[in-house]
Amino acid sequence: MKWLRALLLATLVVAAGCGDKAPQVPKLAASDVVVAFGDSLTYGTGAAEHESYPAVLSQLIGRQVERAGVPGEVTAQSLLRLPEVIAEHRPALMIVCLGGNDILRKVGVPEIKSNLRAIIKSIRDQGIAVVLVGVPQPALITSAPEFYAELAKEFAVPYEGRVITNVLYSSDTKSDPIHPNAKGYRRIAEALADLLRKSGAI
């Protein structure tokens, strides 16, 4: 099954490069597992566990969504943790939301991009679909750095680069300067559910 999923994924990647259609991923079966892979934004810091975006997303899409978020983790640590997460959950799709701690710690862009590229490649090499989420830089007027969009284009994966920025711009949807509250996490989950629909996953 793994080689068949990998073949289907490769076919969809090629198709995504033709025309203006958004990148597509294989449709999730009802029993397929989704892993949300990231740091405190995935863990749900600032809200209760059942209010984290993976918990809300699971309700919205009717699939099991595992919360594999480690607060404070940088991309180099995530890359090392990745194999055990895949081995534990055997997901059909992984949502990668990483880089915020690297940015806060002033890790260089080439290193962040290289680590994220290795994470995406490692996931894809195992026939697992990927969705990428961009994290904004801390600033008065900000957005997700361009390297997120560049990686999404390089691997032809669905990408959400606006919702976290929008959530953290509003005091109504954040618990502190860098973490959403329950309302903010719901907005993130809703944006990702919409992206999964548009990309053919559900």
Number of strands: 7
Calculate the mean pLDDT score and round it: 91
Query: Uncertain segments of ≥5 residues (pLDDT<50)?
Result: 6-19
Number of helices: 9
Strand percentage: 5-15%
Reported for the largest beta sheet, the result is: 5 strands, parallel
CA gyration radius, whole angstroms: 16 Å
Helicity level: 40-55%
- The CA-CA distance between the termini, in Å, is 20 Å
Rough shape? globular
Lateral arrangement of strands in the main beta sheet: 2-1-3-4-5
Overall SS class: alpha/beta
Q: How would you spell out the order of helices and strands?
A: HEHHEHEHHEHEHEEH
Question: What does this protein structure show overall?
Answer:
The chain is an alpha/beta fold and 202 residues long. 49% of the residues lie in helices and 14% in strands. It has nine helices and seven strands; from the N terminus they run αβααβαβααβαβαββα. The protein has helices at 2-16, 40-43, 53-61, 75-89, 100-104, 109-125, 146-155, 163-169, 182-198; strands at 33-38, 64-69, 93-97, 129-133, 159-160, 174-176, 179-180. It has a five-stranded parallel beta sheet with strand order 2-1-3-4-5, with helices on both faces. The protein has a two-stranded antiparallel sheet with strand order 6-7. A hairpin with a 2-residue loop joins strand 6 and strand 7 (179-180). The model is unreliable at 6-19 (pLDDT under 50).
